[in-house]
């Protein structure tokens, strides 16, 4: 099933589920789709949002702080497999494409933010103080739970 945002001639936004793009095109061509608000059959696809995002994580444009794996203490929900796999993929992408600056993370991120050094993808550790300093400087960072990678 594919989820489409649809828009009619009159500018009404609504949503629909279809078996695939062919199914949508087919129904639209035969005039089977109509706006639930005004009834016009002049309906177009506004933006495609697949029900399941399967694309690999892209490298964040912001410096990435290792957030450490969430504590697996009692009472917390375990991370669903899909989320775990996504986070592990993000870690792999970040490690492949960004420089590990370790504990100099905040310092480097701020220097990049100020334009003192060329911008590049970096990741590293950020303490609470670091995060505060970054926030004071207005530096946006991404925090990614740093999950252990599967063996092999
Ligand atoms: Zn309408």
In sequence order, what are the helices and strands, one letter per element?
EEHEEHEHEHE
The fraction of residues assigned to DSSP E strands is 15-25%
Parts with pLDDT < 50 across at least 5 consecutive residues: 48-59
The largest beta-sheet arranges its strands as: 5-6-4-7
Largest sheet: 4 strands, parallel
Structural class: alpha/beta
Shape type: elongated
Q: Which hetero compounds are present in the coordinates? A: zinc ion
Arithmetic mean pLDDT: 79
Number of helices: 4
Termini Cα gap: 34 Å
Number of domains: 2
DSSP summary, beta strand count: 7
What value does the Rg take, in angstroms?
22 Å
How would you describe what is shown here?
With 152 residues, this protein is α/β, with parallel strands linked by helices. The chain folds into two domains: 2-50; 64-144, no CATH class. 30% of the residues lie in helices and 23% in strands. The chain has helices spanning 21-29, 81-97, 105-114, 128-137; strands at 2-8, 13-18, 43-50, 64-66, 99-102, 122-125, 142-144. The two termini are 34 Å apart. Mean pLDDT is 79; it is low at 48-59. Zinc ion binds at residues 8, 10, 12, 35, 37-38, 40. Zinc ion (ZN) binds at residues 8, 10, 12, 35, 37-38, 40.
Overview features:
single chain, 152 residues, alpha/beta, 2 domains, 4-stranded parallel sheet, 3-stranded antiparallel sheet, 4 helices, elongated, binds zinc ion
